Design the sequence.
C-alpha cells in the first residue's frame, strides 16, 4: 500500500541524510520525498511517500521515530487528507499543438508560465493521478521535459501535525 | 570561566565523571591532547590501534554500566574506530566517541586526514554531531552522554574540528546540569494496562518459558528479573547477550537458546504455550526459522525500544518500557494476584524439560588424548570459582565459553554478540581490568581472532592490566571450518592458518608470560599457575582438538526442534 508520512524534523544539516540513509540501509522504498523549513525555522517538514505492507510501514514509522532528529510524525494516508504535487512540464507547442495544449492546460486548471515560438512551460498541481493523466493526455511524444516536486500533504479538519 | 575548546572538552569529561578515556593522538586532536596533558583527573589509555580503543571502552562500559569514552584523530583515526562503534551499536552499548576533524574552513576540501566521519558512522551510531560552534561544545557533549546512556543505549560520536580547539580562542564555560531534547523522550514506565494483560496471560500458562536478552543486563534488571522468575517458577533461558541475568547454576536455568543453545532450551521454546521475552530482540540466531518460531505460544515482549517489538516476530502483548521498571510493576501485580499458575501443569512441564535435559546435549569426549576446548572452559570456570569477567572474541571459542562458563552474575560475560567482531576480546578485557583491578579477567579467544587486535598486548603492559588470555588454538578459523564441514562437504576453503606465530614468544616479546599447553592433563595446572600470577598478563596457548565442533547446532533457516546434536548424543525420542 502507498503511504504518505509527514515528518517534523530538526532543521539541521545531516537530518535529511539520516532519513534517506535509514531507507536505503533497511531496504525500504521511497517513492518521493519533499522537505522545506516550516514557519518555525528550527523545524523542517518532510513528506515521504512510501510503499509497503502494514508490517513494513509500522517498522518504517518506528525506525523514523527512533531517529533523534525526528520530532514528530504522522501517517496522513490513514485519515482524511489532502495531497498535492506540483509539476512543471515543457511541452512542444508548434502549429496545431499550441491551441490543443492551451486547451488541455485549462481543463487541468494549469497555467502556462513560459511561451516561446516552439514551447510552453505548463504548471499543473494536484494529486499524483491527475498529473499522470495530464502527461498521458498531452502525449509522451510532445513532452520535452517534466519536473515533479513529489507529493506534499496535510490532514483535513482540526487534526494535524504540529508541536 | 573562559576556556579554549580543548580545555572545555576535558573539563566536560571531568564534570561528567569520566574516569578513563581510550585514545590515540593525531594532528586534528593535538590541542585536546595538550589539554589532557595538563590534568590527571581523566586518565588517558593509549592503545595501539583505534579499533582497540573502542573495544576497550566498550568492555569498560559493559562491565561497569557506565559509558565508555574514546578519543581519536580525524581521517584514519576515526575510520579505524568504525568497527568498534558498529560493535557497540549492534549490542546497544553506551559509548561516547570524540573524533578530531580538519579545521572548519577546510572541511569539504579533501584536506589531509579528512574523512566525513559523521556521514560514515551515521548508520552505526545512535546519533552523531559535528560541532560547528565552540559555544555549543559543552552542551553537545552533555547531549552525547545523555543520548548514549538513556533509552536503548548506544554509541554517540562527536566530531570536533581542529579550529574549535585552538588554544587562542576562549569562550565562557559552563557544563549544563541537565539537558532536554524535544525530539528524544525515551519511555521508562510500561503501560499498566498492557502489563496487566501480560500478568493475566502468565497466570494461565501451562508450558511457559522466560526468554531474556541483553536488555536485562543493560537495564540493570537482573535482580527484579531473578525475583520474577523465581516467583513464577518458570524455566529461564538467556540469549548470548543475556547470560548472567539469571544464575546459570540454578535449576530453573535451562541454558542458552538459539543456534548453539541447549537441547532443552530450544525444545522448550518450540513447545511452550506462553513466552515472555524480556529485553531481547528476536535475533535470527535466536529464532531460527521465523515461520516455525514458538508455533504454539502467545508471546509477551518487554523492550525499551518500540522498534524492536514485532520487528521479526509478531507479539501478542507488547510492553514498551525499561525492563527494571516493567518487571517491578509485574512483580507487584503478581504478588497481589489471587491466582497462581496451574501447579500440576507446571510440574508436568518441568518433567518434560528434565527429560530433554537428560539428553546431556553438551557432552563431549572427555577421555580424548587431545585437549577438548570444552574442558578448558570447564576448568577455567572452576579455577576462577565462576566469578571471573570473561571476554571473548568470535567463533567456536565464544560459543564454548557461553555454553560452559556458568555465569551467575550480570555483566560478567562480555562478547560481541550482534556484530560478531573478531578482535574484540583482548582490548575489551583491558577495559574491564581497568574498571575492576582486583577481579579475575580472562579473554577466551582463538588463534585467528586474537591476531586481529594482538597489538593491544602492549597496552596491557603499559597500564599494568594483568589479564589471562585463554587461546583455544586449533589452527583453523574454527566456526568457518565447522560450517564448511557441515554444508560444503569439508572443503576447507581458506579457513586453515598455515602460518601462526609462536604465541609464547610473542607474549614474551610484549613483556608478558607465555605458556603452551598440549596435554589434557596439564590444563588445570596451567590455569592455576596463570591466575596465581596476579600481576602478570599470561597468554595460555592451548593446542586443542582441531576436529571439535560446537553442538547442538540449529543450522541457518531451521526451526528450534531441528537440532544437530553431537555424535553419540541421542534425543529422548530415540531413547524411548
Sequence:
Amino acid at each position: 500500500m502507498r503511504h504518505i508520512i509527514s515528518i517534523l524534523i530538526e532543521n539541521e544539516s545531516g537530518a535529511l541524510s539520516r532519513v534517506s540513509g535509514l531507507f536505503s540501509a533497511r531496504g525500504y522504498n521511497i517513492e518521493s520525498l519533499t522537505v522545506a523549513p516550516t514557519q518555525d525555522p528550527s523545524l523542517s517538514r518532510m513528506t515521504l511517500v512510501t510503499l509497503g505492507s502494514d508490517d513494513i510501514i509500522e517498522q518504517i514509522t518506528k525506525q523514523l521515530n527512533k531517529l533523534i532528529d525526528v520530532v514528530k510524525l504522522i501517517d496522513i494516508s490513514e485519515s482524511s487528507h489532502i495531497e498535492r504535487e506540483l509539476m512543471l512540464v515543457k511541452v512542444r507547442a508548434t502549429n496545431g499543438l499550441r491551441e490543443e495544449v492551451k486547451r488541455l492546460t485549462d481543463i487541468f486548471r494549469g497555467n502556462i508560465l513560459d511561451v516561446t515560438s516552439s514551447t510552453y512551460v505548463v504548471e499543473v498541481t494536484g494529486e499524483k493521478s491527475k498529473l499522470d493523466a495530464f502527461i498521458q493526455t498531452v502525449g509522451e511524444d510532445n513532452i520535452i521535459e517534466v519536473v515533479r516536486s513529489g507529493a506534499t500533504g496535510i490532514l483535513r479538519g482540526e487534526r494535524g501535525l504540529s508541536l | 570561566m573562559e576556556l579554549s575548546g580543548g580545555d572545555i572538552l576535558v573539563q566536560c569529561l571531568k564534570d561528567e565523571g569520566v574516569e578513563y578515556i581510550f585514545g590515540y593522538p593525531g594532528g586534528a586532536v593535538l590541542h585536546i591532547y595538550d589539554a589532557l596533558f595538563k590534568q590527571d583527573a581523566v586518565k588517558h589509555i593509549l592503545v595501539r590501534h583505534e579499533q582497540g580503543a573502542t573495544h576497550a571502552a566498550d568492555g569498560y562500559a559493559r562491565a561497569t554500566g557506565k559509558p565508555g569514552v574514546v578519543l581519536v584523530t580525524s581521517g584514519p583515526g576515526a575510520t579505524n574506530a568504525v568497527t568498534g562503534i558498529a560493535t557497540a551499536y549492534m549490542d546497544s552499548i553506551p559509548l561516547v566517541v570524540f573524533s578530531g576533524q580538519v579545521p572548519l574552513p577546510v572541511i569539504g576540501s579533501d584536506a589531509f586526514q579528512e574523512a566525513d566521519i559523521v556521514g560514515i558512522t551515521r548508520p552505526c551510531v545512535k546519533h552523531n554531531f559535528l560541532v560547528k560552534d565552540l559555544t555549543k561544545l559543552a552542551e553537545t557533549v552533555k547531549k552525547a552522554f545523555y543520548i548514549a546512556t538513556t533509552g536503548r543505549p548506544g554509541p554517540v560520536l562527536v566530531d570536533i574540528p581542529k579550529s574549535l580547539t585552538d588554544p587562542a580562542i576562549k569562550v565562557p564555560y559552563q557544563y549544563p546540569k541537565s539537558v532536554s531534547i524535544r525530539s528524544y523522550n525515551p519511555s521508562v514506565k510500561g503501560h499498566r494496562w498492557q502489563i496487566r494483560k501480560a500478568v493475566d496471560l502468565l497466570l494461565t500458562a501451562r508450558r511457559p518459558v522466560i526468554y531474556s536478552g541483553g536488555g536485562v543486563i543493560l537495564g540493570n534488571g537482573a535482580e527484579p528479573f531473578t525475583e520474577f522468575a523465581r516467583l513464577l517458577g518458570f524455566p529461564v533461558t538467556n540469549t548470548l547477550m543475556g547470560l548472567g541475568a539469571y544464575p546459570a547454576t540454578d535449576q530453573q536455568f535451562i541454558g542458552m537458546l538459539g543456534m548453539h543453545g541447549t537441547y532443552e532450551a530450544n525444545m522448550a521454546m518450540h513447545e511452550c504455550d506462553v513466552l515472555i521475552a524480556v529485553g531481547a530482540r528476536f535475533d535470527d540466531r535466536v529464532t531460527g526459522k521465523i515461520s516455525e518460531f514458538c508455533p504454539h505460544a502467545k508471546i509477551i515482549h518487554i523492550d525499551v525500544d518500540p522498534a524492536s517489538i514485532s520487528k521479526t516476530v509478531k507479539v501478542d502483548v507488547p510492553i514498551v518500557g525499561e525492563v527494571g521498571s516493567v518487571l517491578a510493576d509485574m512483580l507487584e501485580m503478581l504478588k497481589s494476584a489471587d491466582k497462581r499458575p496451574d501447579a500440576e501443569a507446571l510440574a508436568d512441564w518441568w518433567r518434560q524439560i528434565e527429560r530433554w535435559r537428560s539428553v546431556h546435549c553438551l557432552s563431549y569426549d572427555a577421555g580424548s588424548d587431545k585437549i577438548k576446548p570444552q574442558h578448558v572452559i570447564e576448568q577455567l570456570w572452576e579455577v576462577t570459582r565462576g566469578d571471573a569477567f570473561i571476554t571473548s572474541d568470535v567463533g567456536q571459542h565464544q560459543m564454548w565459553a557461553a555454553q560452559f562458563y556458568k555465569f551467575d552474575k550480570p555483566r560478567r560475560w562480555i562478547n560481541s554478540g550482534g556484530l560478531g567482531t573478531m578482535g574484540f576480546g583482548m582490548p575489551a578485557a583491558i577495559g574491564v581490568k581497568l574498571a575492576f583491578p582486583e577481579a579475575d579477567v580472562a579473554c577466551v579467544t582463538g588463534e585467528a581472532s586474537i591476531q586481529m587486535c594482538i597489538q593491544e598486548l602492549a597496552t596491557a603492559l603499559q597500564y599494568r592490566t594483568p589479564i589471562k588470555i585463554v587461546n583455544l588454538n586449533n589452527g583453523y578459523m574454527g566456526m568457518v571450518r565447522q560450517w564448511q564441514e557441515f554444508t560444503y562437504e569439508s572443503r576447507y576453503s581458506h579457513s586453515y592458518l598455515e602460518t601462526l606465530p609462536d604465541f609464547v614468544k610473542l607474549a614474551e616479546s610484549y613483556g608478558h608470560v607465555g605458556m603452551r599447553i598440549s596435554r589434557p592433563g596439564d590444563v588445570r595446572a596451567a590455569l592455576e599457575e596463570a591466575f596465581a600470577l596476579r600481576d602478570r598478563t599470561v597468554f595460555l596457548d592451548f593446542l586443542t582438538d582441531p576436529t571439535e565442533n560446537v553442538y547442538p547446532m540449529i543450522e541457518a533457516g531451521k526451526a528450534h526442534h531441528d537440532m544437530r546434536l553431537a555424535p553419540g548424543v541421542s534425543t529422548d525420542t530415540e531413547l524411548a
Notes: The longest helix of chain B spans residues 50-64. The mean pLDDT of chain B is 96.
